[in-house]
Amino acid sequence: ALGDHQQRHGSPPQVPSLTGGSGSSSALGQRSGFSSEPRLPPSLASNGGAQREELQLTISRPTLLLNHMAERYTSTPRVLMEFVDNAIDDAEAFYRRVEQEGGNEAEEGEGDAGESFGAYEREVEVNVFVCEESKRIRVVDNCRGMPREVLQRVVLNVGESKKRGVAFLNGQYGFGMQAFRTCCESLTVQTKTSAEEDAEEITLGRWQTDGFAVESVARAESAIKGTGTAITLDNFDEQWMDDTFSAREIAREIELHFERLLARPGLTVNVMEETSEGNILSIHRCEPFDYAAQDLGVIESIDASVVWPAPGEEVGGKQAASVVPQKVNIRLCVSSQPVQGRIARFFVNGRRIKEVAGTRSFTAYSKRRWTVWAHPNVLGFIDISNEEGSAQGGALQPVITRDEFKRTRYRKRMFEYLIDLCEQKLEKALGRANKEQSDNKLVVLEDILTNVLSTVSREDNRRRVVGPNQAVDRAMLDSLEPPEGGLDLGTGSENQQQEEDPKTVERRKEKEAKAVPRRKKQPQVHQGFNVRLIRGEGKRSELIGNTIYVDIEHEDFKNRMKKNRTGHDRFDDRVCGYLATVIAAHYQDRRYVEHGPPESSDQAFQDMIDVYVRIEAKLRKNLPSLVKQMEAIEKEGF
């Protein structure tokens, strides 16, 4: 409505003041054209012979509106990021980017998205002080500070950010200072632009509507020794005094949120725990993350710095010149170990937005949200920034709370470009790593199957000796344990077993070549029958000697072995039932070869059902243990 009014009458849209009643005397109220009292200015004009009356937007309680807007912030660290961000934005005046060949200035990651090509002209330090005793947090920097008029404007004027349109600065909404309203009672901003002058200070209360004043603070009493700004958030609400209200947690959040910027030479960010008297109890220095570290065990990586759209490229039928270009620094990798907090994330101008898998605007176009982007071993970032000299307004722009992207005209096109650039390569790397991890899981399954079948074999041997309904002591049962080298089931004497048919030997070698590889520390279990899982030639299963080979690439097996969202195999009752059926058939068939055929088809049916039920019951009993072992293998990484 304000935009339409501006087009028709040439008058600019105005910003509501923080004043809540008539006669208010705030600096903002003196400049604002909005009144806190409802009024209808009768601007009568002739419009085709009809009179029209113009109305004016009125916000009767600006503080109530701002407090509700601030509720979008849901954690103490996220609120603090706004004030640390303001300090880093101010330090941008000291940052110099190194020119690369061709005369183009390079941002972090030109050619290698993790490398920095710039430095600060002088040391920049941002210190955060956390006092749980006083329910207070301070953010102090040694940057340029603010003149009185700027201090007055940034604190009291909402939506008038001077950073808007500056390519390398993050702020653009002019709301960051108001974030305090969601968690504490007051905000105090103290600033100095010269080491030889007194500081200036202004305090803003959560429900205060007027009476704001800028006061002088003597140099000796100021926390700022040279130049810079000190922010104090005082009297936090009780519900915000949780586990995140600690120096350690805030330091960790800063490392995650400003990961890209902490790598810049000359920038130091410390988080300190202090007493109410100002004594320092602990110091946590925020460090950058090294994606080249050897202990990560990087399997595959994507390091790229691109511009979208490329010059001359058509986007939606328009030349790229009509679309604001954005630089994308990408550093993604598939690591052998997951790292908490470093899963693939979106950044804008070096500041974290959100995990890629949790960015709903992006995952609406991705078919691999869970198998790739939510995988704990996919680490890194996709950092978006505007090309130097271009105004903000590219395809990917953060919302006011910087945890999502606006619905812009070309957002979908840029997301699709990023998907084409990254997803397939990451998926292939995960597939290779998942296969190796899956092999380790299948070895565990092999051992469980072999032990279950050994137990069934012992039970059947006992039945043959003492009868199906007779009791037997433990010593006798142990005496029926199959020998370590395997049980001779109808293959003749030991010498005959050694002189197997050459075709049988050849078939066994072929099967073993396709079997799941076993670790050296995981010897194959020999207890009567053995079970081996192979990637075979389409045959469901086969018995060779005393080994049952089950093809895990057979459609019947794959239809039952499902995967979870992150691509890991999921073992359940359906898999147990299938394996019990296949193994029971081969086992009972071999028993008949050794001990003679059944008396009737009905007896064969009953024997088969009996063996199947016992194997299936024992597998289900072992299922919880199997699942735990699988989860442990997943936690070990690739």
Round the mean pLDDT to the nearest integer and report it: 79
Task: Give me the secondary-structure category.
Answer: alpha+beta
Low-confidence spans: pLDDT under 50, at least 5 residues?
1-38, 100-112, 163-173, 474-498, 520-527
Rg for CA atoms:
35 Å
Subunit organisation of the chains: single chain
Q: Please give the largest β-sheet.
A: 8 strands, mixed
Strand content: 15-25%
Count of helical regions: 15
How many strand elements?
Answer: 24
What does this structure look like?
The chain has helices spanning 2-9, 27-31, 62-70, 76-91, 148-156, 247-257, 360-363, 369-373, 411-466, 474-479, 494-498, 502-513, 555-558, 573-595, 601-636; strands at 44-47, 50-53, 95-97, 118-120, 124-131, 136-141, 184-192, 199-205, 215-217, 228-236, 267-274, 280-285, 298-308, 314-315, 318-319, 326-335, 345-348, 351-355, 378-386, 530-534, 541-544, 547-551, 562-563, 569-570. With 638 residues, it is α+β, with helices and mostly antiparallel strands. The strands form 7 sheets. Strands 9-8-7-10-6-5-11-12 form an 8-stranded mixed beta sheet, covered by helices on one side. β14 (314-315) and β15 form a beta hairpin. α4 crosses α6, α9 packs across α15 and α14 packs across α15 (601-636). The longest helix is centred in the C-terminal third of the chain and has 56 residues, at 411-466.
